[in-house]
Amino acid sequence: xxxxxxFPLHRQWHLVYARDKRLGPxxxxxxxxxDDGRWKESIGRPITTD
Length: 50
Fold this sequence. Notes:
Number of domains: 1
Radius of gyration: 15 Å
Distance between the termini: 29 Å
Largest sheet: none
Helix content: 10-25%
Order of helices and strands: H
Shape: elongated
């Protein structure tokens, strides 16, 4: 690991969509992926949800 000031970058993402509109297959797959939570294991640090 190379120590560089300001790194690693930490980002917070929010998924926003209109509930009254039907989602497409890709949109639904992304939401299932996020809701499933298995992706958290691959990033190597704890995740918090606020």
